[in-house]
Amino acid sequence: MYCPLSCFIVLEMFPVKLPRLTFVLIVALFAGCAQKTPQTTNNSDSRQKAVPAQEQLTIAILPTIDCLPLYVASQYGIFDSLGLKIKTVIYESQMEAEQSVVKGKNIGCATDIIRTALLQYQKAPLRYLFSSNREWELIANKKLRISKIQQLNNRLVGITRLSTIDFLSDYITTQLKNEQLILRPQINNIDTRLQMLENAQIDAAFLPLQRALYARKKGHTLLAIDKSKYDRLAGFAVSTKWTASKENQDKALLLSKGYDIAVEKLKKNAQSVLNEKDLQRFRLKGYESLLQKPQSFAKARVATTAQMKTALDWLKSKKAISSAFSSDTLLLK
Prior knowledge:
Layout: H1 4-13, H2 20-49, E1 57-61, H3 68-75, H4 78-81, E2 86-90, H5 94-102, E3 108-112, H6 113-121, E4 126-131, E5 136-140, E6 157-158, H7 164-173, H8 190-198, E7 204-208, H9 209-217, E8 221-223, E9 234-239, H10 246-273, H11 276-281, H12 305-317
Parallel strand pairs: 1-2, 1-3, 6-7
Antiparallel strand pairs: 3-9, 4-9, 5-7, 5-8
Helix pairs in contact: 3-10, 6-12
């Protein structure tokens, strides 16, 4: 658009009568020139005032109840309120979650203190951030009519090698008669482990609570384990590359804070927090009773000296790490 003043100026510049088309073109030219400078200035101002968007970070979690608080903190604004831009990515395999951090794809992952120590010994950039209360249940195939751990001698038990559940398998072996052994095929994917149990391709499997309850409803047998044997050995680790700066170390600690806030929300009324999609993602649809268990949600804790000693002593007994390896660098301090 052009104003009457522009027209007047043009007429004053050209007292000679001009053809109508020529006049219109001259006015349009002046109007275009008049608008160009303010437009450029506005763009320049917006560039100066723009604040760079905070980097979106991703963490690898498992579809287990102890990882649910991280998911809730990410999905429902808790991390945002702490100044963190965190997105969760769900993996069905703990080893895949760990490797995603080793390869730089994510900045943290659900893991356990045993595997964190092993990976750190193997020069992987991981440090243990906090312990959770991840629960595993040992389920035997219904066709075997096994009701006690002592009946598992020479049976196939699906595990993840050199992990908390492998550590538990050693505990089980001590309870077998005549020093028998259990056979431990490595089946990292949780769903694959469950399917192989259902198809009688393995005799028993360690499963997280949701899958274990599903298997029990299908008629498979729960074998009692002394859960104090692996209390708080599972948890969350972060990348040492990401936490190399003090700023990111502080952000890592905020991960723990966000986790604890989400735990409180879930304790009050988990079903009011979670929608149908959330229940499906964590395989809780139909098993909502697990959300009311007193121990379903517990706040993050720093790993204790006893827990670190348990992890390192066991790995050394398996000759997976050197006897000289210490826990000095295991935790994020």
